[in-house]
Write a structure and sequence with these properties.
Strand content: 5-15%
Largest sheet: 2 strands, antiparallel
Number of domains: 1
Oligomer: single chain
Shape: globular
CATH architecture: Orthogonal Bundle
Helix content: 55-70%
Structural class: mainly alpha
Strand order of the largest sheet: 1-2
Number of strands: 2
Low-confidence stretches: none
CATH topology: Arc Repressor Mutant, subunit A
CATH superfamily: Winged helix-like DNA-binding domain superfamily/Winged helix DNA-binding domain
Amino acid sequence: METEIENLDSACSRRVLEVVPVVMRHIAAGVHQELEDGRWLTMGQFRLLHLIQKGVGSVSDLARCQNVSQPTISRQVDGLVKKGLVARKPDPTDRRVNHLELSDRGVELLQDLEARARRRVSEILRPFSPAEKECVYEGLGLLRSAFEQPDEGGQ
């Protein structure tokens, strides 16, 4: 028999798994809607730009963050390089290593898309009272700190 806390844990888990995809679909739809052609930049490429901006600077690190193979990430990065959004910079101490950086165009595009996504989310949250918005803000902070903790495998 589950205890009250286990029931609450289970209910919270279900709610997170229900809500996160809905939120991401709205953000993705907004990003795609703002671009001239939704296929010009995929949501996956948008996430890669964001990770590179945050300092994830190699294909192997991106693959680890996204939990996909290096060849998959390498193809996506190639597309971003061809679009002029990312540059590969050789490591001065190890010629086998390339560091990834956003180009000026990549920085500008990412800032624009993030601003548009924030506006879209703000519009969705507009009907909430200040107290409700505070609850959302605090709850999301708790989720972020929980999910940023290393798991038992050290990841």
